[in-house]
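Sharing in case it's useful to others searching the archive later.

Someone asked me privately for the predicted structure of Flavodoxin, so I'm posting the question and my answer publicly. Question first, with the sequence:
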Amino acid sequence: MGSPINGWRPTPAIVRALGDLAARGLAGVKAAAFDTRLKLFIHGDAGRKITRALEGAGASIIGGPMAFYVKGTEGPLLTGEESRAAKWADDLADAAK
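And my answer, the predicted structure tokens:
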């Protein structure tokens, strides 16, 4: 699950979705989280917050949270981030086996 950073946290829509998932439970579900952010000295960590929420809902976390960097608030991803995301996805697929 992923989210752009909205201030210091995931967006309100992601927070609501996490609450819905937690209510249903995620036992037996393998999960990982990421966020997109600007390259700033100070920023939030939505990926970590999402990971904790997924874990609290019973999901089995198969990879640590990942941050991907964007240019501006609307993106696109910075150069090299797409290949980092593909590598992370490959690592998650291996971990899920």
